[in-house]
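retry 2 of 3: previous attempt timed out while embedding flavin-adenine dinucleotide. Reduced batch size to 1 and resubmitted. Inputs unchanged:
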Amino acid sequence: MSLSEDRRIPDHVTVAIVGAGPAGLGVARVLRDLAIPDVWVLERGRIGQSFLRWPSGTRLLTPSFPVNVFGLTDLNAISYDSSPGWSLKREHPDGGRYAQYLEQAALAFGLNVACGIEVLGLEPHGEGLVLRTDRGEIGADFVIWACGQFGTPSDGGLIGAELARHYAAVGRWQDVPGDEVFVIGGYESGIDAALGLARAGKRVTVLERGAAPWQDRDKDPSRALSPFTRQRLDVAMKGGAITLIDGAEVVALEEEPGGIRILAGDGRSWLSSHAPILATGFASGTAPVSGWFDYDETGLPLLTPQDESTELPGLFLVGPEVSHNGHLFCFIYKFRQRFAVVARAIAGRVGADTSALELYRANNMYLDDPTCCDADKCLC
Ligand SMILES: Cc1cc2nc3c(=O)[nH]c(=O)nc-3n(C[C@H](O)[C@H](O)[C@H](O)COP(=O)(O)OP(=O)(O)OC[C@H]3O[C@@H](n4cnc5c(N)ncnc54)[C@H](O)[C@@H]3O)c2cc1C
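retry 2 succeeded.
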């Protein structure tokens, strides 16, 4: 086992998993339970790097609670037998603490993790694939792409976006200059930014192009604000520091003597004395291997029922970009249910015993029929 930067990775592995976040480590654990040999997780930074880069004070929205002993799994756990709620003693851990849980999990599961190695691309090679990394080439029978999206902030094609600062580039809200700050985008990260800025004593205006997400009644948390965010927003709104404006489609930012002019498509505009915060989401984390995926009209990779690329057999995807028939698997408790699907596909090809997967099914960590996730199953 290795969590170090200098451990020598074999020239050829059975499975190379790219990214040591919850998706990469979670699927590595399932492969370990199936006794697949030579599984390596390659990480360009440290374990849980995306969480380490979250703004300070940002917390997981989904609650952690040690319910595993009752046959339920902590919503933020990457395995049925671990619980960040129990190990971190926090219901809504911050990014740094969640990264600690991931590191403990990698050690406890006995995973091979090589940190400080960046995968730059891959090619088919003979029966398998070859990864191009900043430390040379590595051959693999299978590759699982688990790079998430946090490393690829999106400016949504906004004209003048270089005058703003993306949410993912903020370390501490108190360091954002100005007493009055504009936030462009009003979904989870936009409201999280507003809450952090208000806590730091600033007045905040949130500009959201759509109908107010803070009033949306959609039952799927991938499409509406989480209860944790709504609850915090209700409290913060009473303080009067946050103004929410919906139906404001920001189309351009322009520099002018007094600051930065924020222009909406309907002719309205606002003057911001400092760089506004862009909470416009994230692009696909598959960029280094985009030539090996097909994408739908919304930019999501097209996948087989086993979450394999439709373009390159042997290349699988795990994590928040997995989607099937309009169902988004963009929370940990959702995408962890597909690890066993990928593991079964690989095990089938190498002839490994898959009986251990029954434990995953029994623990609600094996979802091979996504039609069961319809949001209208919730009555009240
Ligand atoms: C503010 C915020 C709050 C959130 N709250 C929640 C929540 O409450 N509950 C929830 O379920 N989800 C939440 N999410 C979403 C959750 O963080 C992501 O879905 C999750 O991190 C995805 O896991 P992952 O392993 O796919 O990606 P990541 O956690 O991003 O891990 C990907 C890893 O891949 C590495 N990597 C990237 N490219 C390369 C490369 N080329 N070579 C090698 N390594 C590479 C990165 O360094 C990183 O460590 C939140 C996200 C944000 C931004």
